[in-house]
Specification:
By secondary structure, the chain is α/β, with parallel strands linked by helices. It is about 45% helix and about 15% strand. It has helices spanning about 5-25, 40-50, 75-80, 95-105, 155-170, 175-205, 220-225, 245-255, 270-280, 305-320; strands spanning about 35-40, 55-60, 85-90, 110, 140, 145, 210-215, 230, 260-265, 285-290. The strands form three sheets. A four-stranded parallel sheet has the order 2-1-3-4, with helices on both faces. Strands 8-7-9-10 form a four-stranded parallel sheet. Helix 2 crosses helix 5, helix 6 packs parallel to helix 10 (about 305-320) and helix 8 packs across helix 9. The radius of gyration is 23 Å and the shape is globular. About 45% of the residues are buried. The protein binds zinc ion (ZN). Zinc ion binds near residues 216, 218 and 238.
């Protein structure tokens, strides 16, 4: 008669086999997904793209919501407190998020997704007064110059965000390393193709037509990457108040430079842009997605869709009218 393994020995063997199985199959088979909280919807999409089924992502500032004016609820602090990983944009865009995480008792790493991007300083000629005493105005100050936080609007920067997020997920969940690497590589390929598509599309539009007006200065990175000039009645924070003088100057500039179109943004009240359009005679180019994705059924439900939707709207408005 063969010697039987002890009960304890069998239990151990079963536990090891079960553990290996869980590692091989991933979280769909019993393992809890990694709880990640991102400050806003665009970051949330990046985390989802890289994390796939291994993560459960929550974006505090949701679709079509304005991160500049976000007012956290007490329940937000409690929920961040229990997150496995917290991801922020940085560059002064979402400083409230780090404070909220700490006050909610979050002890882990706060991943700054924009780490390593080539930043832009805010331009000085917004036509609004630079009174940054406003409660929610933002922009990370370096000496007297502030850094523009909207770095994700350059797809080259988005690739850096994704690399940072992949590294952070791997550090937080080493068992998922292969999944995160494979997802990040696939997604990076998509972003590379998107970047090339945007470059080619704007090169095909005459340089003197590549200028538009938007609600707030969210597109300087897009402008630098793809050769489009963006003007706006307010600065990088859409909570800043435009001055009457600044608005009048912008309308004069629209007429003098034959700027073809003005755009509203999904996160900003459209009334001021509508007034500027009416007084300048420029065309209404439609909606650009700046600081938030659209809802699931909308035209910008993911970052890639958002950039394509913006490209389409800009192309339609800037193309020479026959
Ligand atoms: Zn903004």
């Amino acid at each position: 008669m063969k010697p039987q393994p002890t009960t304890a020995g069998r239990r151990l063997a079963r536990a090891i086999a079960g553990g290996l199985l869980a590692l091989a199959l991933g979280p769909a088979h019993g393992q809890q997904p990694l709880d990640v909280t991102a400050s806003f919807s665009i970051l949330g999409d990046f985390v989802q793209q890289v994390g796939g089924e291994r993560v459960k992502v929550r974006s505090l500032v949701g679709a079509d919501e304005d991160a500049h004016a976000f007012q956290p609820r007490p329940s937000d602090a409690r929920e961040i407190g229990s997150a496995a990983l917290v991801v922020v944009n940085g560059l002064g865009f979402d400083d409230w998020m780090s404070r909220l995480a700490r006050s909610g008792g979050y002890k882990g790493t706060i991943v700054v997704a924009s780490d390593g991007v080539v930043t832009l300083e805010m331009a000085d000629d917004h036509g609004h007064d630079h009174d940054h005493g406003h409660k929610h105005s933002h922009g990370h100050k370096h000496g007297s110059k502030a850094i523009d936080p909207h770095a994700w609007q350059d797809v080259g920067n988005a690739r850096q965000y994704v690399a940072n997020i992949a590294a952070a997920l791997t550090a937080a969940d080493p068992a998922g390393a292969d999944t995160y690497r494979a997802n990040a590589e696939r997604y990076d390929g998509e972003l590379r193709a998107l970047d090339a598509e945007l470059r080619a599309a704007f090169e095909a539009i005459p340089a003197e037509r590549r200028k538009v007006v938007t609600s707030h200065d969210a597109f300087a990175y897009f402008g630098r990457a793809y050769g489009v000039r963006f003007l706006s009645p307010v600065g990088v924070s859409n909570n800043a108040e435009p001055t009457a003088k600044g608005v009048a100057r912008l309308i004069r500039q629209l007429k003098a430079e034959n700027i073809p179109a003005v755009f509203i943004e999904n996160v900003v009240d459209a009334r001021l842009i509508e007034r500027i359009r009416a007084e300048s005679g420029a065309r209404m180019g439609g909606t650009l997605y700046s600081d938030a994705l659209s809802g699931a059924g909308g035209p910008a439900a993911s970052y890639v869709q958002m950039m394509r939707s913006n490209l389409q709207a800009l192309q339609d408005a800037l193309r020479e009218t026959p």
